[in-house]
Amino acid sequence: MASYVAKVIEVIGTSEISWEDAAAQAVKAAARTLHGITGVEITNMTAKVEDGKIVSYKTTVKIAFAVDV
């Protein structure tokens, strides 16, 4: 029987385009140093507002990745 162990980290991605793009940026950055990413969970979305308009988006992402056992 194969064992599987995962670790979860939390990162925040930013974007001037959308919350979805902010999440994608977070995963892209994490993938530079993490291998075996198996899934993500979006836990929070916020935005910066200036002069009544959203100017940047932030998405908090929990990233799960495999741990060698």
Q: Can you describe what's shown?
A:
With 69 residues, the protein is an alpha+beta fold. The chain has one domain (5-57). It has one helix and three strands. It has one helix at 19-31, and strands at residues 5-15, 37-50, 53-67. The chain has a three-stranded antiparallel beta sheet with strand order 1-3-2. The protein is elongated.
Give a quick set of tags describing it.
three-stranded antiparallel sheet; alpha+beta; 1 helix; elongated; 3 strands; 69 residues
Strand content: over 45%
Helix proportion:
10-25%
Specify the number of helices: 1
Mean pLDDT: 94
From the helix content, strand content and strand pairing, which structural class follows? alpha+beta
E-strand count: 3
Query: Major β-sheet, in short?
Result: 3 strands, antiparallel
Whole-Å distance between the termini? Answer: 13 Å
| Unreliable segments of 5+ consecutive residues | none
Shape descriptor reads elongated
Number of individual domains: 1
> What radius of gyration results from the CA coordinates?
15 Å
List the secondary-structure elements in sequence, H or E: EHEE
Strand order of the largest sheet: 1-3-2
